[in-house]
Design brief:
This protein is mostly helical. It has 6 helices and no strands. Belongs to the PRA-PH family.
């Protein structure tokens, strides 16, 4: 089995390399050069397929569809010049923090909405 960080690095490098590839010859280049809505719709589609696989309790499909979802999320991140390491750092920051506490801290750090005058 390949190290998860190694495959993530290779996928990231491939996606970065495809930024300059011909969209006619590369699916990744096609998504990267298209309207962002195309990528976002693909993520929504893959998320829905992952949900359906979960509802069907189909382990193989859950794995397959989650891989598709993650892959398309990596493409979305690349469009915004966000590295997977930024996401991993955020997950690491949250590690060991209660989800309830983390959510509460976010709401406490939000400015109060102003009333429309």
């Amino acid at each position: 089995m390949t190290s998860s960080s190694t495959i993530l690095q290779r996928l990231t490098q491939t996606i970065e390399a495809r930024k300059s590839a011909d969209p006619a010859h590369s699916y990744i280049a096609k998504l990267l050069s298209s309207n962002e809505d195309k990528v976002l719709k693909k993520i929504a589609e893959e998320a829905a397929e992952t949900i359906m696989a979960c509802k069907d309790n189909d382990r193989e499909q859950i794995i397959y569809e989650t891989a598709d979802l993650w892959f398309h999320c990596l493409i979305m991140l690349a469009r915004h010049d966000i590295s997977p390491e930024a996401i991993l750092s955020e997950l690491e920051r949250r590690e060991g923090v209660s989800g309830i506490e983390e959510k509460l801290s976010r709401s406490q750090n939000q400015p109060e909405p102003t009333k429309a005058e």
